Amino acid sequence: MVSVAILTISDSRSSGDNQDVSGDMLSENIRKQGFDEVYRGIISDDKKKIEEILIQLSDDEKIDVIFTTGGTGLGPRDCTPEATKKILDLEIPGISEAMRIETRKNADTSILSRGIAGLRKNCLIVNLPGSPKAVLECLDSIISVIGHAVEMISGRTLHE
Fold first, then answer.
1. Helix, strand, or coil here: 157?
2. What is the CATH number of domain 3-154?
């Protein structure tokens, strides 16, 4: 079973001012896929905090995938991609490219999302937007490869 951490990155959600609708939707949808949610957290748009929690979560070998939601736009405090990139061992541009290509069919503004994806140790990290609608669209565009990616990362897939 694929173990998943969900990390919402938002000043307003971390202060309790707004409900974490994107995190809730993400949680519901990964469970429908049969994934095991083993962690759920909310932190502010603070680059250092994001780096620290991503390192902590990814270095725990029990987590296969970390989905972040929020902080990928053009706002002055949006820094999730920069924090993620700093701690990655390997970037996987195809994942973020696929999300932007697929979601552009529904909203031209999706190309403004700066989310990235990659590996730290044996953990796949994927930045999703903060919008609930965009989270679902992005997740739908990549979910079919997540299980295979986890198998490849863990060395369980043989190439013929």
1. coil
2. 3.40.980.10
Residue 125 backbone phi and psi in degrees, to 5: -120, 130
Residue 151 has pLDDT above 90, yes or no: yes
DSSP string, 64-110: SEEEEES--SSSTT--HHHHHHHH-SEE-HHHHHHHHHHHHTT-GGG
Residue in the block written with tokens 């994806």: 117
Q: Whole-structure pTM over 0.90, yes or no?
A: yes
pLDDT-derived band at 158, boundaries 50, 70, 90:
low
> What does the alpha-carbon distance between residue 130 and residue 106 come to, in Å, rounded to a whole number?
16
| C-beta of residue 65 within 8 angstroms of C-beta of residue 123 | yes
Delimit the domains of the chain by residue range.
3-154
Residue-wise pLDDT tens digits, 36-71:
999 999 999 999 999 999 999 999 878 999 999 999
